[in-house]
Amino acid sequence: MLALLSAAACGEAKGAGPDRVLEHTYATAVAALDAAAGIRLEHTVPVVLLTRQEALERRRTFAAGLAQGAGATRSVDQLVDVFLSGGNFVGKYFPDEHVVYVFKDVLGDDWYEAPRESQELFSTVTHELVHAHDDQVYDVIPDPLEVLARLAADDASQLESQAVLMAILEGHATWATELACQKVGHPAPRPLTMEDVRNVDAFDGDGQPLLDGLAAAGNVIVGLKYLQYVQGREFCRRAMTFGGEPFMREVFTHLPVSREELADFDLFKLRWAAQKEAELDAPSQAKPSESGG
Question: Average pLDDT, stretch 68-73?
């Protein structure tokens, strides 16, 4: 176990080929999450190494094999097609398949022999394994079909609670990954800041009026997503500093978290403490029957 948690051990698989490096990275991530954050998977999560095109084909095959009426994956895969085709992210956990995909064409050629790419792989696998943990242990990953239905129904309150939940899920994965990186001696990914939120430039209309308008709208959406990451990370940093992973269980069993609580952990803690006190007092208030029979 200790060998897995040393920086030197993370380079032991170098030169052994991509599959061996991926296997070693997975083992190191699992051990680091346990040691640094108290996060333990209930069972093994497959991590598959694919190109983005191979990932698209695998997802289509998976969706085609679903039973009649299982529409969530088919609906979401329309978005996944766009996401995978144009994205530059390294990996993704798919809760319907319970598998982490790692995209080797995003990592680049010979990534398994390059320290920087190996570190990026470690942080990606670790982040996605936290999502898998939250799926296995807390069962809090939103059902995509429900989210789409709420979006179609313009259910503002429910959509807001889902957005806050997504922020907490991403914050949990982000903060736990930083702890795991520190444990193995890897540089952690730079966390997003409010400066990033204010200066989003993900899209550029290149001076064309119509495209400029679309780019501006896209940047607003990205900025809101960045804000989720910033607030989610800070919320989870404070929650785990306060009570470790056991307190994250308290968070997930006291949903929904409001937007105000997401922005100010102390507000959530006050509400949680009041509810917890009421929960603890409830059994003592139920008096046994005094019937003389």
Answer: 54
Query: In this structure, are residues 237 and 191 in contact, taking their beta carbons and an 8 Å threshold?
Result: no
Q: How far is CA 123 from CA 72, 82, 228, 251, in A?
A: 29, 24, 19, 24
Backbone phi, then psi, for 184, in 5-degree steps?
A: -95, -5
pTM over 0.70: yes
On the question of pLDDT at 249 being above 90, the answer is yes
Angle at alpha carbon of residue 160, lines to 170 and 236, rounded to 5°: 30
Strands 47-50 and 91-94: unpaired
Kindly indicate the confidence band of residue 7, based on its pLDDT and cuts at 50, 70 and 90. Answer: very low
Q: Helix H segments across the chain?
A: 18-37, 52-64, 71-86, 104-107, 115-133, 144-152, 156-184, 194-198, 209-252, 259-263, 265-285
Q: Are strands 91-94 and 99-103 parallel, antiparallel or unpaired?
A: antiparallel
Handedness of CA 129, 133, 136, 140 (dihedral sign): negative
The tokens describing 230, both together, are 């910033």
Provide the β-strand partners of residue 47.
100
Distance from C-alpha of 39 to C-alpha of 100, rounded to nearest angstrom: 17
Q: How far apart are CA 254 and CA 99, in angstroms?
A: 27
pLDDT in tens, 15-36: 568 889 999 999 999 999 999 9
**In this structure, which amino acid lies at residue 101?**
Y
The maximal CA–CA distance of the chain, rounded, in angstroms, is: 87
